[in-house]
Amino acid sequence: MERIDRRSAEQLRHYTIHRHFQKYPAGSVLIEMGNTKVICAATVEDRVPFFLKGTGEGWVTAEYSLLPSATGVRTQREAVRGKQSGRTQEIERLIGRSLRSVVDTKAIGERTIMIDCDVIQADGGTRTASITGAFVALVEACSTFYEKGNIFPVKDFVSAISVGISHENEPILDLCYEEDSQAIVDMNVVMTGDGRFVEVQGTGEGRPFSHEEMVELLRLGEKGCRELISYQKDILGGQLVWLVGREG
Amino acid sequence: MERIDRRSAEQLRHYTIHRHFQKYPAGSVLIEMGNTKVICAATVEDRVPFFLKGTGEGWVTAEYSLLPSATGVRTQREAVRGKQSGRTQEIERLIGRSLRSVVDTKAIGERTIMIDCDVIQADGGTRTASITGAFVALVEACSTFYEKGNIFPVKDFVSAISVGISHENEPILDLCYEEDSQAIVDMNVVMTGDGRFVEVQGTGEGRPFSHEEMVELLRLGEKGCRELISYQKDILGGQLVWLVGREG
Amino acid sequence: MERIDRRSAEQLRHYTIHRHFQKYPAGSVLIEMGNTKVICAATVEDRVPFFLKGTGEGWVTAEYSLLPSATGVRTQREAVRGKQSGRTQEIERLIGRSLRSVVDTKAIGERTIMIDCDVIQADGGTRTASITGAFVALVEACSTFYEKGNIFPVKDFVSAISVGISHENEPILDLCYEEDSQAIVDMNVVMTGDGRFVEVQGTGEGRPFSHEEMVELLRLGEKGCRELISYQKDILGGQLVWLVGREG
Amino acid sequence: MERIDRRSAEQLRHYTIHRHFQKYPAGSVLIEMGNTKVICAATVEDRVPFFLKGTGEGWVTAEYSLLPSATGVRTQREAVRGKQSGRTQEIERLIGRSLRSVVDTKAIGERTIMIDCDVIQADGGTRTASITGAFVALVEACSTFYEKGNIFPVKDFVSAISVGISHENEPILDLCYEEDSQAIVDMNVVMTGDGRFVEVQGTGEGRPFSHEEMVELLRLGEKGCRELISYQKDILGGQLVWLVGREG
Amino acid sequence: MERIDRRSAEQLRHYTIHRHFQKYPAGSVLIEMGNTKVICAATVEDRVPFFLKGTGEGWVTAEYSLLPSATGVRTQREAVRGKQSGRTQEIERLIGRSLRSVVDTKAIGERTIMIDCDVIQADGGTRTASITGAFVALVEACSTFYEKGNIFPVKDFVSAISVGISHENEPILDLCYEEDSQAIVDMNVVMTGDGRFVEVQGTGEGRPFSHEEMVELLRLGEKGCRELISYQKDILGGQLVWLVGREG
Amino acid sequence: MERIDRRSAEQLRHYTIHRHFQKYPAGSVLIEMGNTKVICAATVEDRVPFFLKGTGEGWVTAEYSLLPSATGVRTQREAVRGKQSGRTQEIERLIGRSLRSVVDTKAIGERTIMIDCDVIQADGGTRTASITGAFVALVEACSTFYEKGNIFPVKDFVSAISVGISHENEPILDLCYEEDSQAIVDMNVVMTGDGRFVEVQGTGEGRPFSHEEMVELLRLGEKGCRELISYQKDILGGQLVWLVGREG
């Protein structure tokens, strides 16, 4: 089998994470996975949602948006429509849950870390790229208020990737938009540094899928996530990698 | 291990589906799973979304809502807030996708089948109960316009159930609200009559989960879905069961 | 004259009130008036609107909604439209005013009683059925926090019914949907246990109506309300009936 | 009994209707009832609502708004809040129904007459003043497209007034704001030129009201409406009065 | 050149300001510039926006609206559309900035002065008429809480006028709607009593404009503003004029 | 005088325009003016607004948005607030008018060119940078459908810059955020290739400004716009520059 962009079935697209992308946020990266490009920013705010006031605990939450010009056919601006779509909110909830799964909210203190994922160019896998990139921005942001001797708020690494079964019935890793739109099965896998799952969301778009296919897709997803976590470590560098999981 | 309501780990709650629950819609059932009660109605409309006009194809879509009085603490009415929550839209998209996975949209003709899932009482598992009940209403509705000799629009059975890992680290089937709010891992499984998956959505709420746990949860989910499909057949009766999957 | 459903002009439809219909709210009934079915729930909340804070007084307010599947032609969900219709708000204001007319807000204390009227099936007279049913849920709810020796917050009974002048120019009681849509004059009457009016809202849909017709319609409305209050007493039972109007 | 402004119980406030108040609309008046001042404009548009397209019939609909500066305490602008209140919509529906009760929608042809009632100063009775004034603007507007020999779209006169039972238990006519806010019973009466009712909306604000009180309030309302219709005739002048009720 | 209404190029339309136009607000005028008529009201509220709480400073802000019946073709009500248009908000911001430029917010104390400009009839120049009229209402309102010996919150006069280049390439003052809709260049000038500019907003509608044209338009605008300030003084009368600019 | 970033009073910040920034839109640039960075994209759509249907004419319109992470203090996402702010709409109207001033809408044919200006980083002058960058994207987009021998839809160059009077009373060119927030007078100037003005918007933030200051600011603005137009020509290159103003 040859894929659209000549990759093998188990190969990720070319990826880079560009750190310190913006001037103002505490953490900010540009992640590229092939033609998919997402700005992930992490802002630290000295307030928490109502249900956490006075508990000493913090919060991590995410927002996601597509630039109208990011897609093949221009996407209507949600601020003009007057509301976020269901798809947008579903993605925001997924990003938030994924990051919180490796965060010690007590160690954040009464702060909210706002994650903004703004897609500059969309060619499939924007939600998983958002998670992978946002993790790096999150570590950057936590390092700005971390004081030595304390627990570092980020306990483990987390990355995400899409897998699927192609229209030619082959399991493939990291689908681009064209592959995704033809795929029979589509799955997003979010994994931590210790090789366990945070989220598995599989959908049979064209037909249901068997237990065996499920297991094969999980294997592919694990492979992709592991490679991305390894890259996150390269990009963060020894000093920040050393902080992740610090217990004091 | 003994569960809150004395069930075994692999046991479903008491369930019933009450057919012809409302007077006006083409299909209408009340499904009860323990204390969870959902009215599922299917209305046939002679119009299709914009992107299907003139194609001869139909559509199935779903809406979901909680009565304010359905929950332990009263839920604010979404019509008063002025918009549906992200959670509501995520559930609506799941129900719609699950039903469409067993529907031949060409066989519907240029019609839309609106599925309304209105939760009268919520004690965990409302989205999976909605799918299981809505399937029965969908078959009822399709039978109202089906003409002998044609393909019946519903190709296979579909049911759904929640599974999870309890706070005592045990895999359990069909979580009630109290179990769900304490669960470490929470998963929804949607399965067809031929034993394949339509959707698998697993989330590590308390901690990530391993490959082995994933496999065990899938097994439990399959068991629950199979039992519910068997009950759907009892409830629909031979004449309607015979229609499902008819190819002319 | 024979009516659509063979009733006489002055006869109510078959009615029932089913108490303790839901598990969670302090009060909850299902009221049926012919094919019209409404769930009326009363929830007690330990907060009051802004203008009552610190006064020691409480509040009663109502919300009303139709399930989309409740009507002959499916009704669009207001949460999807993003706002409540004028009709919905008008009905909510009527239900709230009617109940408050028999409530001693001081005796409630700084609590809000939220009345939710959710119409499961609509065949005319949903607003009046809501008032009649909500009254029972309200008494149930007040009894949950009432302490002996105090004033009971509900001072008198209240019920409601529709009357009208049919397209055959006959005054009729308790119109079903088909009668209502053809009626020349349509009137809602809300009455207390002592036989006085709380609300009278009459509209000449087809033509104006004379002073004599007005008086005749009032007489019919009184008859209907009286019968319903008598039934409310049966349903509530001696113990709760004894509380209504208690002054300590 | 002496009223706040020295009127007798059965006396209207000083009233005037100023015709041709604005330059652009087909009909436009300023009505004053004491300190209550409302601009009522009628615009003719060559389109009808969806449900009337192709029927040859027309429509009359009304919108109502308070200038923020019209009330003792400034009222928040509904365009800023982003929606109309329930009260506003209830009033708009009342004005629309009242005017349509004297209109032959077939004689309008496929046109919509938009009635705009904008309250410049509010001192009680704004909805009834709106109806009384809007009637004059409506006749003006219909005369702009009326062609001799046809049926004139306005079949009869219509006016409206508020009545009530004061806090001193006296039935009174045409309540100003201060009287209205203290009234025990509040009623709006809309009457046609032939002395029949279009709308009767009575509410027991402070206590329920008896059958006898109801009858007395109707009598007062009729008296007020009759006087206002007589004034409408003066203001319209012979030529326009002659048109009302013309059948060709 | 002769203008539509026979004015000379440098002549204002007939203008009047009618003081004490409404009963309730602290300041209220009706300003007429030809057929353009605007009610400008100033309400004093004992609260300030969030960012001024506890500073002892006050605020002046403005809202603007067109009655639907104010324009040649009826304008849709913004409360019905559910939001203010961009044009409305742009005008509100302009009015607010213009008035604040002559206000000492410290001298207001912790109060907000709400300016409501409601256009009764629109024939061009509604935003500039709003500023000119609102200034008078603002002075009236400030005089209601001003205590002798203090700084008066209004430091100088301010007025506004439109200028433009006509479709016949002539610079003209105070454009009516018809002139405005054909103008090649359109400019609004806001000027203070000492002859300096607060706002200059020029737009080349039909073509760009040269430096020389810009200078000529500024000259015309100054002329118009000066005449209006002179009239504001006449209308306010000696006692209030004396207050403007008082420093104790 | 030395400015914050050591520029002279009449010096622009370092600027670049990066062409072909995104993959999908017909035109797309990244413009940087100092730390201000804006993505300007131009999409060609085969539809026109309602008022142009069937006229053969096209339209140019603009949307503007700040990424939440673009500003020193995070900006709330407008899609979450549910509406665009007044400031956003005012900027969108300015960008649209400025571009249309150099566009021959007939030469566009029945197409809409959507301009999206998304600010990645905001350090003052985002609206003027948007105009200057959007012009280049617009030319790129028009060249994609332009056919030789026709009129090219873009008739002249257009650029924009901010000028102001600093808190030290000096006229300065191209204000960064810190300068802007302290400026006494703030002005935006939009100019065409032939040296004429399209828009001049000056506001006295701290105090009114004199005729002489106005003239000096216009001179500075002209200087800045000229330099940017010269750079637009460099960036577009001979082939595209040659098209601008082509008449066939």
In CATH terms, the superfamily of chain A is GHMP Kinase, N-terminal domain
Radius of gyration of chain A, in Å, reads: 18 Å
Largest interface: A-F, 34 and 34 residues
Spatial gap, N to C terminus of chain A: 50 Å
Structural class based on helices, strands and sheet pairing of chain A: alpha+beta
Counting DSSP E segments of at least 2 residues, the number of strands of chain A comes to 9
The count of domains of chain A is 1
How does the major sheet of chain A shape up? Answer: 5 strands, mixed
- Number of helical stretches of at least 4 residues of chain A: 6
Estimate percent helicity of chain A: 25-40%
What kind of oligomer do you see?
Answer: homohexamer
Q: What fraction of residues of chain A sit in β-strands?
A: 25-35%
Top CATH class of chain A: Alpha Beta
Subunit structure (chains A, B, C, D, E, F): Homohexameric ring arranged as a trimer of dimers.
Keywords (chains A, B, C, D, E, F): Nucleotidyltransferase, RNA-binding, rRNA processing, Transferase, tRNA processing, tRNA-binding
Protein name (chains A, B, C, D, E, F): Ribonuclease PH
InterPro entries (chains A, B, C, D, E, F): ExoRNase_PH_dom1 (IPR001247), ExoRNase_PH_dom2 (IPR015847), ExoRNase_PH_dom2_sf (IPR036345), PNPase/RNase_PH_dom_sf (IPR027408), Ribosomal_Su5_D2-typ_SF (IPR020568), RNase_PH (IPR050080), RNase_PH_bac-type (IPR002381), RNase_PH_CS (IPR018336)
